[in-house]
Amino acid sequence: MSNTHLAEKETLKARWDALIAERPMRIREAASHLDVSEAELLATGLGNDTVRLTSPWPDLLKRFKDLGYVMSLTRNEGCVLEHKGIFDRISVFGGGNHHMATVLGPIETRVFFKNWGYAFANTLDTGTRVMKNIQVFDKSGEAITKIYLQPNSDYEAYEQLLADFKAENQAEALNTQEKEVIDYNNDIDEDAFLVEWRNLKDTHDFFPLLGKHKAHRYHALEIAEGEFTHQIDNQSITTILEHASATQLPIMIFAGNHGNLQIHQDVVKNIVPLARGGQDWINVMDPEFNLHLRRDKIAHTWVVKKPTSDGIVTSVEIFDVNKDMICQVFGLRKPGQKELTDWADLVATLDKTS
Fold first, then answer.
1. Are the C-beta atoms of residues 39 and 174 closer than 8 Å to each other?
2. Tell me, what's the pLDDT at 7?
3. Side by side, which strands form the sheet with 325-331?
4. What is the CATH number of domain 190-348?
5. Residue 34 belongs to what H/E stretch?
6. What pLDDT shows up at residue 163?
7. 3-103+115-165: CATH superfamily
8. For residue 10, what pLDDT is reported?
């Protein structure tokens, strides 16, 4: 480690310590206050409570199964999904920009390895408990996903994972990069785009449709407004969660970022609104699943309909002020099944915006 890098690391650690001494906060919030990435802040603990891990990332992901019962967390600026369970069925496929994985079972995710940049094992001492964890970040240092061990996790497997994936150089500086700016097409042939939308056979065909036309998802919804999409009140998510809880209507919630998409497929039970520190949250606080959604971050909410071989499939899609997706909600269904009537009826009651 160069003297310059060592001094910068120590200075950043001192600034972080001073900040949380003044007002305790989570690392993500602290990184924002200090105008650095979360990965850079975590890396100040290298040689102390943090170990840098190395790729290949698919091999690292596969080893999560060995940890047994854990908590998996994926988030973006407006939403956090947390599941407790095991990494049961892990499948890796593709390569290059299409190198992906699916995780099925109690923890369900879709993984996009091209956006994985850094990974660390960390021991977090909160003062009341010690939490061992693995954290993955993109190349800009923004969090992709975090795995927290539970009391009944396999701690021997965790230590073996650290031994097998520990980077040789623990003092190397993080060379974080600027986030990739995607060049979307703003001059889409709307008629051709809508023809292809009308001919969709599966919800999974929608993403390739966007890719073919280089369309931003939000722009696609604007193009289809009046035929397949319309906007609804931004508080609709509260109605959805409360109704789904009261009637035990099973739903699917998709939330994440460009490196990891986490999925909930079940009923929700304990709905807890919370306003604190100028933030407005709606939460699901169930034993094996937590959702934390900032309602004050919601700028746009759309109902989206996609034709499939099984009939129309309806989603509610929630976006922030930058038109980035916060989360999607569907009625629970499997391929080959029609959409739940109760879900379609619920969405039909949600108030449209003018």
1. yes
2. 67
3. 89-93, 100-104, 108-112, 260-266, 251-256, 325-331, 313-319, 300-306, 229-232
4. 3.40.1570.10
5. helix 27-34
6. 97
7. HemS/ChuS/ChuX like domains (3.40.1570.10)
8. 82
d(CA 134, CA 122): 6
> Please, what are the averages of pLDDT over each run of 10 residues along the chain (354 residues)?
63 90 89 92 93 97 98 97 98 92 97 97 89 97 97 98 95 84 92 98 95 97 98 97 98 97 98 92 98 98 97 98 97 93 96 73
Residue that has been written with the tokens 């129309």 in this structure: 312
Nearest CA to 131 out of 79, 63, 82, 77 is that of 82
Q: Is the dihedral angle over the CA atoms 86, 91, 95, 99 positive or is it negative?
A: negative
Tokens 């989603």 correspond to: 315
Sequence ranges of the chain with CATH classification 3.40.1570.10: 3-103+115-165, 190-348
Measured CA to CA, the distance from residue 319 to residue 300 in angstroms comes to 5
- What is the C-alpha to C-alpha distance for residues 294 and 10, in angstroms, rounded to an integer? 34
Position 3 scores a pLDDT of 46
- For tokens 């959604």, name the residue: 293
pTM of the model: 0.94
Nearest to 336 by CA among 310, 298, 297: 310
